[in-house]
Amino acid sequence: MTLGNIGGYELVRPLGSGGMGDVFFAVSPTADRVALKVIKQHLVEEPTVRDRFAAEVDSLKLVFGSRVARLENADPFANPAWLAVEYVPGATLRQHVDARGPLTLPVAAMAGAMLADGLAKVHQVGLLHRDLKPQNIILGPDGPKLIDFGLAVLVDREHYLTEAGALVGTPAYMSPEQVRGERELTPAVDIYGLAATLVFALTGHGLYPPTNSWNLLLRITEPSDLPDLSGVPAELAPLLGAMLAFDPTSRPGLDTVRTRLLEVATATSGRTALELRQEVAALTYDGDTELLVPQGLEDPKEEPEDLPVVEEQSTVEVPETTPTKVDPVGAPNPPVDVSWLVDKMRRQYARRSTL
């Protein structure tokens, strides 16, 4: 039993829900596993928003790389609008830290460098992630992967402030310019989000103490109210502090961030980048979270078999009862009613001259 079909994908089970829509584990007709997001109707009510979403989807088709979950299919103009991306098994960074505690310095720094690689691929095609947070990072069998990149374009400042559920886990990782509602955003917003995510990965806490949404947003936009970096190792505190600069033009670029994170990861562990990459996957991937294609969806749908063709001129009398045929899986097919054919052949036989 499935939850329905969208765009040819069978919805198997819900994966989660957020400010932009509901996510389902779904399966294609050829048994490909995807994460299918159904976009909330109010976000795409205006035709201009659907056009913007369609343009974003076209850009997502160009994103590549091992650090991003690839786009599989989408229909921005369907009701409801939806898109399907590669299913990545594993827990989110948020789930991992909540369950097992913060990452070690070398593992967090290496994971951050790998995520910087992913962000670089997103930025290369003119996209911004805009919603980088621990919930949007899957710790897969080959390390961390970014999900939901490019979709935050559908949620503007008004929705963040008024839509129920949209604030959960998101404003704490938003840059000041996003909170202010600026439209001309730069890659610096993702530098800020990556830093906020790494602070959580290293310490288990956010940049500001838990509080109501309005108070949190006010604190983010106050230049003198600095983010909380307590618990961040000294080796990374200067870099993360620079990445969280209030002025986006003061934040370092991705190349600088990746280089520094790699330096810290290798220097503090005494391991190579390859060894650290393998360690990240070994320490963070939870294979028990993987969802498989249900047994009932694995086999292709079989078309009904055609009835046997009997030539009209045949002189062989067909018996009244036909043996029951068994299909390949052992279930008997219902007997075919051929009594009309039997009567017809008997009449033809009666008209023949006796030998």
What does this protein look like?
The chain has helices at residues 47-60, 93-100, 105-124, 157-162, 176-179, 188-203, 213-220, 237-243, 254-269, 273-284, 295-298, 339-351; strands at residues 5-6, 9-17, 21-27, 33-39, 71-75, 82-86, 91-92, 137-140, 143-146. The protein is an alpha+beta fold. The chain has two domains: 5-289, Transferase(Phosphotransferase) domain 1 (Transferase(Phosphotransferase), domain 1, Orthogonal Bundle); 308-355, no CATH class. Helix 3 packs antiparallel against helix 6 (188-203), helix 3 packs antiparallel against helix 9 and helix 3 crosses helix 10. Strand 3 (21-27) and strand 4 form a beta hairpin. The termini are far apart.
